[in-house]
Amino acid sequence: MAKNKPSLEITLRSMKLISGNGSLPKLLRVRWMGQLTDGAFQSALASFVLFSPERQPNAVKAALAFAVVLLPYSLVGPYVGIFLDRFSRKRVVQLANLFRAADLLIIALLINRGSTGLTLTLFVLIAFGTNRLILAGLSAGLPLLVSKDNLISANALAVTGGTIFVVIGGGLGIGLKNILDNSTRGDLVDGLLILAASCGYLLAALFTGRIGKSEIGPLPHEVSQEIKGFGEMLEGFHILKEHGDAIRGIFATGVQRGGITALTLMALLLERNTFNATDNPDAGLRGFAYALAIAGIGIGLGAIAGPFGVAKFGRHIWMRISMLAPIGFLIIFGIFPNEFMLITTAFFVGGFGQSLKITNDALVQSKIEDEFRGRTFAFYDVAVNAGIVSGAIIAALVLPADGVSLVLPWLIAVAYLVTGLGLLRSSRFSAYSNSTN
Question: Which of 41, 162, 298, 321 matches a 20 to 30 Å C-alpha distance to 105?
């Protein structure tokens, strides 16, 4: 019975956090509403850009879609810390949600007109860049709402609940599209879905109003007046360098997310061009959504397993296990690239990846004072986004048009193996365990 005590305590702690009357449920409401809307928005974009009959994607086009969304944020991300460490994070998150809602009104109009050019790309970039500002602000403020002992459980709720809501939102978007497609042309349907997403972001802004002005920081005595831009991100990097396990965990998370991105692109091409008829993109979209839903279930279970794994093995060993565990599935998927193995691999890569992410989030949050947390999370986001873009580029170089590839899953497996045994090796990574367990 003694071995089960930590697991029981973690479960009870998580239930108490989500059902409590404190400020954390308010933050979760904002985050989850925004990410539910993210799923609907992203499904409408995918339908318009990648699953329209007249727009058959190849690996390069799909990778460019990812890069267009994420790479520019790596340039503006360093300035996120300026806002999050100087101004009320509640105000920043609220205004960003309002701004994003207005931005989606313009995107809806452009999509209704069938626009696929630079103008649409620009407004999509603004929407996703704003989203990262919101998520970074909520992550930076979360440690002010819970005790240090509850950080892993709180991150499991916030990050994983948000990811699950993205999947649910995507499913709702696809379901509504299938209903409306019978009576309305495709571009108008996608425009209407994005219009509904604009209302979702407006609701998230209203939910933010229930959070106190200073509840998620920064605290008054910690506000710095000096603005350095990219220098701030470098400050975050140097602060993290003093905590070797935290920065190693960030780079490992970037590698893991890069692998997920490459696998997602492979799944997209397989469902669009191989597992389903190329002249039936709606079937491909449904298959892709099903694979994402199974991955979402894995993500949810991975988040539940994370606190239990940490309780049993400690943060550092559990992160190494999470990095290495999906490798066997990737190797088998490379040999047998069928729909069953795609879904199975997505389940385990998503699940262990989420377990790694929430554990590392708590590790970083526990190490960094609130005064510097905004800029360190700005660096965290930029590093992970760079990994995602790298994964997309590698996938574009390796994948054929039909998505069938032995090389890509094995490349991901090798990257995970090198990261788990090298970057997270016990002699260097676990050496910091006394200060973070």
Answer: 162
